[in-house]
Amino acid sequence: MKKNLVIAIDGYSSCGKSTLAKALAKKLGFIYVDSGAMYRAVTLFFLRNKIDIADDAKVTDALQHIELNFHSRDYESHITLNSEEVSDEIRLMPVSENVSEVSAHKIVRHEMVKQQQRMGKSKNIVMDGRDIGTTVFPNAPLKFFMTADPKIRAERRFKELESKGNNETTLEEVFENLAHRDYADTTRKESPLVRAEDAIILDNTDLTQDEQLAFALERVEPLLIK
Questions:
Q1: If you count Cβ atoms within 10 Å of the first and of the last residue's Cβ in the chain, which end, N or C, has fewer?
Q2: Is 11 assigned a ligand-binding role in the annotation?
């Protein structure tokens, strides 16, 4: 098997992209890269430091003071923001409500894409996000585009928040947040969420985690014997 094999997974929020990506990475012995966590960490930094997203000069300067690193434990992706563990905080609603605007910013995306592309130059990786198969790795040999029924997605996200002890957010608020993010992700000017022409659609509305992993592995296996 050759080195720097990239599996790109794109799709809507709360479709289980990271669940599939982590499972694939564990099964194949690849590195898992959570690109969405990078944008969330940047968003957290901007919120903490009251960075005006409309001020390009301040955004550019802020990005020079952000150091992101991934640490993997049991194929769970943990991210640090300037050496601080923020894996849980970036999943809370304040970040969720602002991440689409931050991730749509041209300067932010260009910086994150450069970092992501460096990660794929020498390692076998599974990376999930919104534009991995279209912008970050357009020549990736295998691409998936994940989708699911919006109500199912909201229920999954709501249960995730509950499991982390967040009992203040309602299911209706989660549903509205996902609808807003879908609109922002698909209509932004910079690298909008769109299915790559050669991406395999994976609708997991009615699939278990084991079933979606089997679906993906069946399509990965031919690449491993080349």
A1: C
A2: yes
* Residue 163 annotated as binding site: no
Q: Which residues contact 154 (CB under 8 A, 6 or more apart)?
A: 14, 171, 174, 175, 178
With 0.90 as the threshold, say if the pTM is over it.
Answer: no
- The pLDDT tens digits for 147-192 are 999 999 999 999 988 888 877 889 999 999 999 989 989 998 888 9
β-bridge partners, 201: 145
Bridge partners of residue 79, in order along the sequence: 70
Q: Is 103 annotated as a binding residue?
A: no
* d(C-alpha 127, C-alpha 129), whole Å: 7
Distances (CA, A) of 217 to 5, 54, 210, 221: 14, 42, 10, 6
Check whether 16 is labelled as a binding-site residue: yes
Stated length of the chain: 226
